[in-house]
Amino acid sequence: MQRQNSILRNLDWVATILYILLVIMGWFNIYAAVYSDDHRNILDFSQRYGKQLVWIFFAFIMAFIILNTNDRIYPAFAYIFYGVVLLSLISTLLFGRVVNASKSWIPIGSFGIQPAEFAKITTSLALAKLMSSYGFKLSGFWSYVKVAIIVGLPVGIILLQNDMGSALVFGALVLVLYREGLPGWILAYMFFLVLVFILTLMYSTSVLIAFIFAVAIMLLVIYTRHYRDAFRVTLGTLGIGLLLFVASELFHLKLSVEIIFLIPVIIAVFIGFAYAYRKRLKQVYAISFFLIATLGFSMSADYVFERVLDVHHQKRINNLLGIEDDPLGWGYNVNQSKIAIGSGGFWGKGYLSGTQTKYNFVPEQSTDFIFCTVGEEWGFVGSAVVVSLIAIFLLRLLKIAERQTEHFARIYGYSVVSILFFHAAVNIGMTIGLVPVIGIPLPFFSYGGSSLWAFTILVFILLRFDASRYGSY
Amino acid sequence: MVLRAESNRKVVVSVIIILVFAVIISKLFYIQVVNSSYKFSAANNVLRYVTQYPARGLILDRHGTPVVTNKPVFDILMVKNQVKPFDTVEFATMLGLTVEQVSDAFVQASKQKGYSPRKAVVLLNQISAENFSRFQEVMYKYSGFEVQPRTVRSYNRPIAAHLLGYIGEVDERDIKNAPYYQQGDYIGISGIERSYEHVLRGKKGVKIFMVDVYNRIKGLYEKGKFDTIATPGKNITSTIDIKLQEYGERLMQNKIGSIVAIEPQTGEVLAMISSPTYDPSLLVGRQRAVNFKALQQDSLKPIFNRSIMALYPPGSTFKVVNALIGLQEGVVTPETRYSCDGGYHIGRGVACHSHPSPTNLIQSIQVSCNTYYCHVFRNIIDKREFGSVEKGFTVWKKHVESFGFGSKLGIDLPHELKGIVPSVSFYDKYFRKGGWNSLTIISLAIGQGELAVTPLQMANLAAIIANKGYYLTPHVVKAIEGESITPDYHQKHFTSIDSVYFRYIIEGMDLAVNGVPGSGSTARIAALPDIRICGKTGTAQNPHGKDHSVFFAFAPKDDPKIAIAVYVENAGFGATWAAPTASLMIEKYLKDSISRPDLERYILDANLLDRHAKAK
Ligand SMILES: [Zn+2]
After folding, report:
1. pLDDT tens digit string along B132-144?
2. Burial level of B576, CB count in 10 A (0-12/13-18/19+)?
């Protein structure tokens, strides 16, 4: 009894209330998305809002159980949890929906647990376990290999299940690594590569080569301040390019534009290495390396896009970048969702008065595109409130993570923040056309038991750690 | 120092989070407040998506004659909330329907998936142009109804139903498999309509209208910026000769079976008849469901495409395959002679009919001697070099499979069957391991036993012999919108038999049709004075009733233009029905006229359906 009192007393009520608020708002939006004149009873369990109500109820029970469970089990059993979920991922891969056995303990409706959702929790725990283990430091090759294995295993299996969206979520864990010592330039470089990837798909190879070269020269100027040498390199490279072009025209060599762009840049890289060696300039090494690595990435990105990605991913990405315009095809979702949100205007159309979302124009409107209902019925005001609430919730969780004295709890906390952040930003981003359509749910809002439960467990394990940080049991 | 670095990192993460959400809020502000293109909504307006259905591609015959075309029909849509009480009797009569049909349609409409009383849903589909034009004049009287023009298939002649196939509304599985489809779309379900669906269907377009709460159209949304135009489907040129197809269907009326004719040099299917057949226009229009059910319940299975889905024993026609394998394996030569005294008497024994004896290889085909092939078959299986029955059988099976038996030939039509060529493991299970030998499976010598082939595979065998050793994958489409089809169909598939051996078979098949009277030729009824036909009869034993009559042939001998196989179920000897039918088809194709009206009458008038009834 006393233990429970202390847990409740030390529980972070700001985060808890924000959580409850978000879940309730989510439910009202699912009700609105499914609402029609024909069925209004909120306890109609054949409808999605009825089922969601049941799932919310169970989520609250789970939260309660977690708060009343000793938090020592997480560091103790982190790898075991991780292994169990990994096995169930493999079994779903091999045997399809075998895991539907969960039907026996959830008596309502048809329901299938998606292990991918729970892999987020166990991977976070395992990562925390690894990185908080005695003597572990995020430096050196082997430490990164270990991290890569912990994260890579579930990602690999999820990719084999063709669930690109869920796999990408794990990419967000780079924020955890950053907090624990990953050099800042790697984070910056990763953002840069994402940019290069998008540009690769939008512009021709030659434009990309010119762009990457320009960035390299800029870095050279900023870091070495050898203005004259930078100027010479630029001029020389342009000169070689021009020479190649003239030669190609004169002797009918039929060199492609890419080659005329690429050869001078590669020569510049070699000159860069020689220059760096003679003058013993580390930065020039780094920049030359940056140039060649980014070029390589850009070329292979093109290849990956054409050969590795599914057609529907290609189309979604292309569509986002405005390369294909196809309102009834894959772009249809985003177009509809933008129209629905945009039509909400400043004040919105009022609760249950949305028209775009009501008429099934927006597909998946109670799952991945639930934010459309928010945008249409509650307008800019409502959307901004929801987005802000999620942001405040994340910042609060960040604060909680940061105040943990245990390494394990802090690292886990950062994982929670990163995963929720990725889900929220990408989900809302896709409904308003900021990022490609990848099917991942909006935490606490999207219809679905698996995701709601996974997010609840994710958050409440952190809150449980936080509640006992002043004295462990 | 360390502390500072850590708190910096915490700040960086917070800044990233805040920045990203700031970008999201800015974008929200942009599309919800700044950008006017999404704010058409002052009076709670709704966008309406009107799908623009493209016309489906036409199907032409090999000479460019249209076989399948389109005709306009009209779907009547309703918005339930706007329907006011009206005169149902007039409404129904104008549309050419009964009052019951109309009230039933109202009940059905409200049951469909995604139904909403505020949304336009299809009430009645495929109203013919005549009925609709009558209704159109009084349509203003009925509020809440709209019209959507569509096109459906139209057939100039009631032929080639199996080959052309039919279209129908997509079901949920289709929609799930290909997001292109939406409820109410049509899709090819069988035949060419199905295998060339992606070519024929074209691409839908969409017009986006703004409508007010009373569903009145206020104009195009954003001046049609988001609209797309429908692209019509591509026209397909089939390989079928429509005259030959029609003639074949006439010859096969009142009979059960199949004819397949192929152009040997190209693999193009010239005619593909499955009898009984049905009028393809039965599966178009409002009566489709009723007609389909009736066809489905017909005991003669008219929907079933026998040419590629019926499995028959090849019968004696298969002797030519065993002869070729024997020659290739060197266990028989053209001069090898065996005498026949009315049967093969070792083991269970195989009976033969009376014919001149002994025969060499060529004569054995001419007279179709069973005894001869029991020797040949056993020579192959028990060839000393193989060492065991299993090995010998495996070699034999490999040769047989190189003719395309036991696997799909890959014709561009759905639902083709593989046929059956038994395997060692099959016999090991059926008897027991080591419990069988060349005598146990002797029926294979004369094309009986565990063999099963489709009429298409049989016609392909005729093409292989005509080509002296290879075939091109049979196909029914020649060109798409003038562009020639995939190169896969231009590739020669060689059998495992050397081309030199085929001339003996051709000689034998020539004699079988054109031998002098009294020499024992089995198919003299198929002979034509001015076209040299090479053919082989067969009688496929049928455990359920009277034997099936089989004949396969090609012509002319020196420059084959047509290879053909004919199966007539429960018709007895190959020479009686199948051979004359094939002969008439060949004459029709090569000369476009018939020199033997009596023979033609004999076939046309024959009604063999009662035999089938007896067999049941
Ligand atoms: Zn004989």
Report:
1. 888 888 888 888 8
2. middle
Report chain A's mean pLDDT, rounded to a whole number. 81
Domain count, chain B: 3
CA distance B282 to B301: 15
Q: B71 - beta bridge partners?
A: B152
Report CB contact under 8 Å: B18, A395: yes
pLDDT per residue over B15-24, tens digit each?
A: 999 999 999 9
Nearest to B412 by CA among B176, B192, B155: B192
Q: Which residues contact A123 (CB under 8 A, 6 or more apart)?
A: A82, A150, A151, A154, A170, A173, A415
Q: Which residue do the tokens 């690769």 mark?
A: A200
Q: What is the pLDDT of residues B478-505, one digit of tens each?
A: 999 877 777 778 899 999 999 999 999 9
Q: Taking CA B491 as the corner, what is the angle to CA B486 and CA B492, rounded to the nearest 5 degrees?
A: 155
Same domain, B366 and B225: no
What was the pLDDT predicted at A330?
47
Of A36, A343, A387, the CB nearest to B24: A387
Weakest-pLDDT range from A439-443, B458-462, B548-552 = A439-443
**Strands B205-211 and B217-220, how do they pair?**
antiparallel
Contact A353 B44 (CB under 8 A): yes
Closest CA to A316 of A330, A327, A305, A297: A330
d(CA A369, CA B153): 39
State the burial class of residue B249 (Cβ atoms within 10 Å of its Cβ: 0-12, 13-18, 19+). buried
- Is residue B92 domain-shared with residue B208, that is, in the same domain? yes
Q: What ipTM was estimated for this complex?
A: 0.84
pLDDT 10s digits, B192-245: 999 999 999 988 888 877 766 556 676 777 677 777 888 899 999 999 999 999
User: Which residue in B27, B49, B116 is closest to A432 by CB distance?
Assistant: B27
- 20-79 in B: which are within 8 Å (CB) of A? 20-21, 23-25, 27-29, 31-33, 35, 37-41, 44-47, 49, 51
Question: Shortest Cα distance from A129 to chain B (angstroms)?
Answer: 20
pLDDT band at A40 (very low <50, low <70, confident <90, very high): low
Chain-chain contact of B24 with A434 (C-beta, under 8 angstroms): yes
- Indicate whether B228 and B337 sit together in one domain: no
What DSSP element (H or E) covers B567? strand B562-568
Measured between beta carbons, the chain B residues lying within 8 angstroms of A387 are 21, 24-25, 28
Indicate whether B451 pLDDT > 80.
Answer: yes
- Which pLDDT value is given to residue A455? 95
Q: Which residues surround ligand 1, an ion (CB under 5 A)?
A: B 340, 352, 369, 371
Look at residue B156 in the predicted model and tell me its pLDDT. 86
Contact flag B47-A361 (C-beta cutoff 8 Å): yes
Considering only CB atoms, A434 lies closest to which of B6, B27, B206, namely B27
Give the pLDDT confidence score for residue A470 in this predicted structure.
Answer: 64
Residue in chain B lying closest to A35 (CA): B116
CA-nearest residue of chain B to A399? Answer: B10
Q: Check whether residue B233 and residue B258 sit in a common domain.
A: no
In a domain, B357, yes or no: yes
Is B351 an interface residue toward A (CB < 8 Å)?
Answer: no
Interface mutation target, options B1, B2, B13, B222, chain A, most CBs of A under 10 Å: B13
Whether B45 maps to a domain, the answer reads no
Domain span at residue B18 reads: 2-35
Cβ–Cβ of A355/B49 closer than 8 Å? no
The single-letter code of the amino acid at B86 is F
